[in-house]
Amino acid sequence: MLITKGLLYAARTFPEKVAMIDGDKRFTYSQFAARTAKIKHSLSQLGVKKGDRVAALLLNEYRYLEIIYGTTALGGIIVPINTRLSAEEISFILNDAGVEVLYIHPEFLGVLSEIKQQVKGLRHVILAVDEGEHVGQEVHNDVLQYEELLKQHPEQSLSCMGLCEDDVAGLYYTGGTTGRSKGVMLTHKNIVVNAYHSMLFYSVLKEDDVYLHAAPMFHLADGAATFSITMLGATHTFVRSFTPNGVLAVIKETKVTSSLLVPTMINLLLNMPDFDKPYVNSLRTIIYGASPMSVSVLQKGLEKLENVQFWQAYGMTEAAPILTLLHGQDHLLDGSAAKIERLAAAGRPVPGIEMKVVAPDGRETAIGEVGQFVARGPNIMKGYWNLPEETANALRDGWYYTGDLGYRDQDNYFYVVDRAKDMIITGGENVYSVEVEQTISQIPEVLECAVVGVPDEKWGEAINAVVALKRANSITEEEIIAYVRQKLANYKVPKSIEFVAELPKSGAGKILKRNLRDQYWQKQERKVN
Fold it and tell me: What pLDDT band is residue 296 in, cutting at 50, 70 and 90?
């Protein structure tokens, strides 16, 4: 079970079938495999060996797939970088992972100098552009050109000899409880098994699909579909970054049939006047997840897109990423309250996954009783990169402790009601409150603060900072937000600041975040997706 074998199968079975459509570029599976082989050999010539880390700081495009498959075919470990991070945050990941080669999109050249100053182990930077493409800014002489590298290598067959399914294939960074990212080690087996069990077993995706990469490709949320589409010999198509108009344009041009969308994207699309035009009728499958989605928005989507089958995926990076699916059939409403209530479920575990709900004392909870979700199966991560204590805490007695709280019903549907961690999911992005709190606490006027997620129709959750000042009215909401924006990625910046005289605390002096959250969430149908 190697990632590259999916591409090899497709190239041998469907050599002339269109694999990738990106603007005016089209590549068959034969061409896809040939270009991937050149990526593999170019990396080898640059000194990349089995186990070395190769990072990608890219927008959604066909090269992303070539880099993923080329790196893993060599035995390298792909490190996708969140494009919304600051230069400091990117540098931390590159240093932590020990990245030697970085593929970068021209849009991020502005932070390259700062990154190179902070990341001393970075040996090569490769600019992902077409040959002779004007990038609009000066490029250092030591930056290599993607297409020029490919031209230097003759046609060779793609292979993945000497690899094992338990080798680490990807290092996916997610938010850390200390406010810093931690790298999730996923093996070839983790990724391939999850793609098969989640997307292919249920025929969520099919051989004739045209799949739109609308969600960021640096997110593993898009991963299960990514690898499934290739294994099927179906077609990938891309939008650089999500905009409603951009998505509609690609749907119209390429007759998109399927996509994974976070609820924020679905909500924005549903509010587009052109989203009911005839050309949208090519859509037949929407997979959604990654952030809270209200039942009312989902019902609106089901009504407006009556010919589209909706599937909900629940999981996390550590699960590669899917644990449960809410089947398309579960979205077929008949007007009954039970059917509508079922829309709030996360679904049932996918094949190969065992899940249960446990109480703090370790016992399995009764039906309907809230506890923590734990899971085991061939998709569960190998561990956290260079974090043995974090790994031991998450992986106990063969089970992965998710940190999410919920219950299961008599039909084995799992319902997520809250999270044990203080993570906020806003627009599909994971934000740990402690990181934002630490940043706000650096402001001299701030006495203490707590950051919580509050319900938001557009973003699923919005970041709200509750702040107690040393002296009343000594700083404004706008000034605090501006300060955080200088320090952190835009999606981590609070949407609102609430000033209080004192934060609620327990007898032990611990800030009671639940008290702060509950006033916003009490009337919501669900608290996490």
Answer: confident
